[in-house]
Structure prediction request, 400 residues.
Amino acid sequence: MKQNKFVLAPLMAAILLTGCKQDWPELNNAGIPPVIPVGEQVASFDDPMLTGDCENATLCWAGWNVIQSADVDNDVFVFGAGNEKVMTPAGGWVGAQISNWDDQYNGDSFIQTIGQTENNISDGLTGELVSPPILIQNNYIQLQLAGGKYPILASSGMTGVVVELLPVGAGSDYPYADPAEVIGWASGDESNTFTWKAFNVSQYNDSTRYLRIRVVDASTGGWGQTIVDNVYRSDELVLEYDFIDNSMIGSFDLDAVGATAQGWTSTFTSNVVGNEEGSPQVIGRAVNTCISGACDSTTGTMVSDPFEIIKDNINFATIGGAAGKQVFVKLLVDVDDSGSFVEQFSETPTTCGAWDAPYWVNWDVSALRGKQAKVEIIDNEVAGCGFIVVDQIHQSNISQ
Prediction:
């Protein structure tokens, strides 16, 4: 959801002061939100270099860890001695020319994952960059993002950025490959126009927690590209931005492989949390009731601890099931504040076998704000397609 804090009076004042020119107001002009974040720039990508002296990875690019595949020729972040496939100078080239590069704050270059050679442009290259741990000292992480629009949070086919919260106690030396909790994600809009994405991390801002950022291009189709620049941590939102403000109910990313998860009660006797049977294409860990050798016959229930509904939507990603199957995700709400939780929403997935195609479910809970609720994951099906995968259950003021 695009948000704009630019109120009419400062806007008129800016017009009177600057005439018809589109020069932006000075950053310290009181009452006018800045066009770039006021805070610390975490990454500008203006002087990127590919190095082999990383602490936690084989290669670093612009100081970020490169996730390298066996097929290096198709790795967007390590192809070519001059890294011509990832660094694009200001003004761009025909395949990644940014339409709103005109303001004075963008620097000299940006990341783009479009395959670029002398005579060829391709969306076929893929790869990931993972930032070093970033200490959370401000309320927002803000960055510029363009490129493909792949909003499904799947490890296959995704483009965009993912923000991950490191475990309590993790520090600046936390290995890039160790697990972290996904708390935010964003993609482009099938456009080469930068949009500011603002991730609200205020609930973790105690100057002890760390996060990391993944730049992801896992798509080889049309608009299979991610374009990123200017990563900031700050306390003031920019002039115009997309706001990512998730409150997690169940990400399962930091939970040990097992029958249950922290903050949940389970009747499953098999390891449904972190179970990778079927190789579901989700990021991190998920609840997956397809147990090896007992995919359809495994049954049970997981119920979250009660939580307050504080946002307008509850979203989650799911795979599995089929029409009429006894597999569900349900929302139970204490509607009359009596302590009795009553079903308000229910979803049965109908994507049996589509392990690479999780889809988002959105429940509009705006009328239930302030009420106590629980999420229930149920597998009572023992026939074919009697399994369910659930991931990234969260509250948000936007629907996925």
Summary: The helical segments are 8-18. Residues 253 and 285 are 5 Å apart (CA to CA).
